[in-house]
Specification:
With 338 residues, the chain is an alpha/beta fold. The protein is built from eleven helices and twelve strands. Helix 5 (129-141) packs across helix 6 and helix 10 (262-271) packs parallel to helix 11. The longest helix has 15 residues, at 230-244. Bound molecules: S-adenosyl-L-homocysteine and iron/sulfur cluster. The site of iron/sulfur cluster (SF4) has 11 residues, from helix 4.
Length: 338
């Protein structure tokens, strides 16, 4: 059986035919679910009996374990449970006129980054494209603002589950009408995945998680660096920027005394050269996780780091943390029932 948001338009059409209903019902169903982004039971132009039938035929992939709010209710985090018991998390961040959804691409993560709660918990399974689309739509159902941006920055390494993630991007673009540059795929540096993304038809935004200006330090934080060292990751990212004509962004979790020193900013700026459109670094103060002893850099240290990057010709912004109170901030997702 297919789940509600795994079914694409042709499958909805054949389901409607199987149920002996007129073809225009399939169009109403598709437009209601995707164009209008409404929950199934609110498609009031479809008769109640048929809606009940459809709810049975097209079950949701997830039930809600918990939903928590923070930041004056502008940040929401869901812990979902799939039929096989896998748990994943999704975060909705609402702004005045729009909203961003941070989706998970895997239950857990096999990459083992030392400072990340998801990495500390290990890998459970890949998510399907339908499960990724469901996260976006169910967050949309709770948001008065239109979801305009989707970031693959929840649990998991999207480019270790590349085909499902690209499939989900296609569907978010085609079915929900999101613009490709408002879809951000964040990777820890899976070079073959970045190459695959370079061939992908949609010019989505690529974000690469760096966290260190050199291999020696990066290996300690990001085990994958042993397989794909910085130079290879940056070359793949340069090729992406070149092909798509899009600026690549970089994530850098600032850890007190570990990767936030002035000479490290200079070294980082020195490596981020030759990017079409320039390079842009997002500095994120480290968020607390149970398994890593490092502390976040203080605000002044991060501001100084950003200044030195700018002096070296690299754009830098300091990211405001959302959702720390409910463990919904970067790196804090780990599918544990609170
Ligand atoms: N696996 C992908 C995407 C999910 S992680 C990746 O690593 O890019 C999303 C972002 O959160 C990444 O930039 C990651 O490095 C960052 N992150 C992980 N743990 C963090 C922590 N404890 N504090 C701040 N950022 C963290
Ligand atoms: Fe996985 Fe990203 Fe966490 Fe690393 S930072 S363990 S790649 S989710």
């Amino acid at each position: 059986m297919t789940t509600r948001y795994a079914a694409r338009q042709p499958q909805l059409e054949s389901l409607i035919t199987t149920l002996g209903e007129p073809a225009y019902r399939a169009r109403q169903l598709y437009e209601g679910l995707y164009r209008q982004r409404r929950p199934l039971d609110e498609l009031t132009n479809i008769p109640r009996v048929l809606l009940a039938r459809l709810a049975d035929e097209l079950p949701l992939a997830f039930t809600v374990d918990t939903m928590q709010l923070a930041d004056d209710d502008t940040t929401a985090k869901w812990l979902w449970r799939a039929a096989d018991g896998a748990q994943i998390e999704t975060v909705l961040m609402r702004y005045s006129a729009r909203a961003t959804v941070c989706v998970s691409s895997q239950a857990g993560c096999a990459m083992g980054c030392t400072f990340c709660a998801t990495g500390q918990a290990g890998f459970e399974r890949h998510l399907s494209a339908g499960e990724i689309v469901e996260q976006v739509l169910r967050a949309q159902h709770a948001s008065p603002q239109r979801v305009s941006n989707v970031v693959f920055m929840g649990m998991g390494e999207p480019l270790a589950n590349t085909e499902a993630v690209l499939d989900a991007c296609t569907r978010l673009h085609d079915d929900l009408g999101l613009s490709a540059r408002h879809l951000t795929v964040s990777t820890v540096g899976m070079v073959p995945g970045i190459e695959r993304l370079t061939e992908f038809e949609l010019p989505v935004t690529l974000a690469v998680s760096l966290h260190a200006p050199d291999d020696a330090l990066r290996e300690q934080l990001v085990p994958l660096n042993r397989r794909y060292p910085l130079a290879a990751v940056l070359d793949a990212a340069r090729a992406y920027a070149e092909r798509k004509g899009r600026r690549v962004s970089f994530e850098y979790a600032c850890i007190d005394g570990v990767n936030d020193l002035p000479h490290q900013a200079d070294a980082l700026a020195g490596r981020l050269t030759g990017f079409r459109g320039g390079a842009h670094v997002n500095l994120i103060p480290l968020n607390d996780t149970a398994g890593y002893p490092g502390r976040p850099s203080d605000g002044r240290r991060i501001a100084a780091f950003a200044d030195r990057l700018r002096a070296g010709g690299v754009e830098a912004t300091v990211r405001r943390n959302r959702g720390t109170a409910i463990d919904a901030a970067c790196g804090q997702l780990r599918s544990r029932t609170p």
